Amino acid sequence: MRRRTREDQSFNKQRRNPYNDYRSRTDDHNRVIPTASIWFPVLTSKLGIKSKRQQELFLVACIAIVLFLWYMTPLSDYCASLILWTVPVESDVALGRESLLSLERKYPQVPDRWGVKSIGSELVKSGRISAEVGRDENHLFDNIHLYHWDFGVVHAPQVVNAFALPGGVVRVTDTLLRVLDLTDGELAALIGHEMGHVLHRHSQKRVVKNRLLTTIWEAFTFDDEDNTIEKSFGQAVGEGLWKSASFLGDMAFSRADEYQADEVAWDILASTYSNYHGQRYIRHYHPRNVRRLLEKLWDFQGGFGSTTWESTHPGTKDRIKALEEKWDKLNFFDKRKFTL
């Protein structure tokens, strides 16, 4: 009789182990099946689509429709705004502080010799008063008091730009301030514009829009191979925001974002003409300074829009025209208010 080797004993021991037998029988059954592979055939069957070829064509058509709606309509903006509506401003503040650390490693803060901080504080005060007394018809400044506003100047050689980070952080490059030689009114317009990006949460919206399709696709094709607990949709969005903290300062805005920020700048400058309450007097900043600021930027660019400002704040020429039309639409009495 052949003597049993150690390998034979090990094999027989493993074979007789009931746990190993159970595990080998159930491994295939415990594998998580992607959700889409379950409900999509059921859906197509309900619709009378039975052949594999027809199901594939239906899937391609659905994806094409979704992509068209996403990129060619305001659907993505509505979805991103709806998601951000559930995110408290306190989260913006924390995200902004994290982004600021990354920004100032690249562009260190320098002393403010141009009055960025003082003008910014005046605009915040004007916006708060407008909200308190009900003069903010568009309700743009309802939450302005919730932000931790922080204005400053950063050293960035050859970079003509300004940065709006979540939570109320606004930074202007010293290069922009030197080469453009802005008046106080034009500087107020610049700061008001960046405040508009903050109040409309444009940075977060861009991240959510970019991550949303990825998150939906990951959920659509989800296959939990390591049997870990699936993350919720909200957690995935939050993780995406934090992952983007390091480059929020360099994020480019859309033309629609720029028009919205111009509107905020116009309205907050206009609010300085009607905010006189006891000792809370605020200097007047004419709203047409928004157009003058953009004209200076456009002239500096040589009429071609080739600077770092245009790379993150597109559509300067069209926005100048839109602001001029906005002024022309005002009646005589509204225009006269800004000249007194």
Could you please describe the fold and organization of this structure?
The chain is mainly α and 340 residues long. Helix content is 61%, strand content 5%. It is built from 16 helices and four strands. Strands 1-2-4-3 form a four-stranded mixed β-sheet. A hairpin with a 3-residue loop joins β3 and β4. 31% of the residues are buried.
Summarize the structure.
By secondary structure, this protein is mostly helical.
Features:
mainly alpha, globular, 4-stranded mixed sheet, 16 helices, 340 residues
Largest β-sheet summary: 4 strands, mixed
The backbone outline, from C-alpha atoms, is globular
Oligomeric composition of the shown chains: single chain
Total E-strand runs = 4
Low-pLDDT regions: 13-35, 218-232
Give the helix/strand class: mainly alpha
Percent helix: 55-70%
Topology pattern, helix = H, strand = E: HHHHHHEHEEEHHHHHHHHH
N-end to C-end Cα span: 115 Å
| Averaged pLDDT | 77
How many helix segments?
A: 16
Strand order, sheet with most strands: 1-2-4-3
**Share in β-strands:** under 5%
Radius of gyration: 28 Å
